[in-house]
Amino acid sequence: VILSSDCDLAGLTDSKNLSEKKRDMLALAIKEQAVAWCVASASVGEIAQLNILHANMLAMTRKVKGLAIEPQLIRIDG
């Protein structure tokens, strides 16, 4: 997700600390306010071949490359 620097999403915090309802509401707000967003994954085969850490890094690389614009800063939660 790429958000503008002036984006203010009240209640945005670590997703593990949010109720399902609040998480769903924030997901919609994030998609509405996002400058760009992308979803990517690694396959079961890639995880088996690379291990979970490297497959996760592969998926993150795909996410960044899948964005419509290049981000200035990348923050990873996890």
TrEMBL record:
Q: State which Enzyme Commission number(s) the record gives.
A: 3.1.26.4
Please name one Pfam family that this protein belongs to: RNase_HII
Question: What residues does the RNase H type-2 domain cover?
Answer: 1-78
Signal peptide as annotated in the record: none
Known catalysed reaction(s)?
Answer: Endonucleolytic cleavage to 5'-phosphomonoester
Q: Which InterPro entries match?
A: RNase_HII/HIII_dom (IPR024567), RNaseH-like_sf (IPR012337), RNaseH_sf (IPR036397)
What one GO molecular function would you report for this record? Answer: RNA binding
From which domain of life does this come?
Bacteria
Query: Which SUPFAM superfamilies has this protein been placed in?
Result: Ribonuclease H-like (SSF53098)
Keywords of the record: Endonuclease, Hydrolase, Nuclease
Hey, which family's this protein in?
Belongs to the RNase HII family.
The job of this chain, per UniProt, is described as:
Endonuclease that specifically degrades the RNA of RNA-DNA hybrids.
What is this protein's record name? Ribonuclease
Specify the species.
Answer: Neisseria arctica
Q: Which gene encodes it?
A: rnhB
